[in-house]
Amino acid sequence: MKLNLTKNYVVNNILTMAHRNLLKTLHNPDNLSDVIIQPVIFTLLFGYLFGGVIAGSVHAYLPMLVSGILVQSILNAASGSGQQLREDINEGIFDRFKTLPISPIAPLAGQLVGDMFRLLISGIMTLATSFLMGWRPSVNIPTLVIVMLLAIFIGWSISWIFALVGLMVKNAELIGSLSMIIILVMTFLSNAFIPTNTLPRFLQSLVRINPVSLTITAIRTILRTGSWSNNATLVLISGVIIIMVFMPLTIFVYQQRS
């Protein structure tokens, strides 16, 4: 049967797959915890455990903590792309998709489009929890939206890396474990939770070149000054480069296995 691959048809297929992946997240406790539970737990845990030690009080620590937890939560949610793709492949669902009269790229594109909403939910949960703990941003709502969009964009660009890993590594549990280890190392070895000058000198050098630190610094600058910064531009450029490199690679690998 010849497919009607018009633009509207392909878009509808992708949105249907994105809706399907969102429903899968909502009905899967593991995936749901990545976007809803983890941001809340980490914000509460780090805020109340380390706020007094690092900043003197929870309230004083929140301006520093919010940006770190926001980026960490976004990355955690982004890492779910690879695991969910591999689970669908191992369960034979992608083979079933091949037999349906849909656009061949829709299953992959639907996963990545659905990730945008997962990242949005994760970011909202972080900011909402921080607000309930007493954090009050000094910027207006449009600026806060810009911060959220920047975090989502860099998280979505990294989703393509995890999606590629999901297509190449055959064990879904291994993907989840490796993703968690990488994210924890990158976030803890950054300026997310502690002042950089408290670290040994050799660690300070690693923190400075960590892309997570660059993203967090950009977000903190916007939240503090209410204006765009050079660091934010670098984050934007970095995300574009990641997409330009990994989107074609991911699509190529996906088409090869299709």
Q: Which spans have pLDDT < 50 for at least 5 consecutive residues?
A: none
Helicity level = over 70%
Order of helices and strands: HHHHHHHHHHH
Which percent range describes the beta-strand content?
under 5%
Number of helices: 11
Report what the structure shows:
This protein is mainly alpha-helical and 258 residues long. The chain has helices at residues 7-27, 29-55, 58-78, 80-90, 93-98, 106-132, 141-168, 172-188, 201-209, 211-225, 230-257. The longest helix is centred in the middle third of the chain and has 28 residues, at 141-168. The two termini are 17 Å apart.
Q: Could you list some keywords that capture this structure?
A:
258 residues; mainly alpha; 11 helices; elongated
In short:
With 258 residues, this protein is an all-alpha fold.
Secondary structure elements and their pairing?
Elements: H1 7-27, H2 29-55, H3 58-78, H4 80-90, H5 93-98, H6 106-132, H7 141-168, H8 172-188, H9 201-209, H10 211-225, H11 230-257
Helix pairs in contact: 1-2, 1-6, 2-3, 2-6, 3-6, 3-7, 3-8, 3-10, 4-6, 4-7, 4-8, 6-7, 7-10, 7-11, 10-11
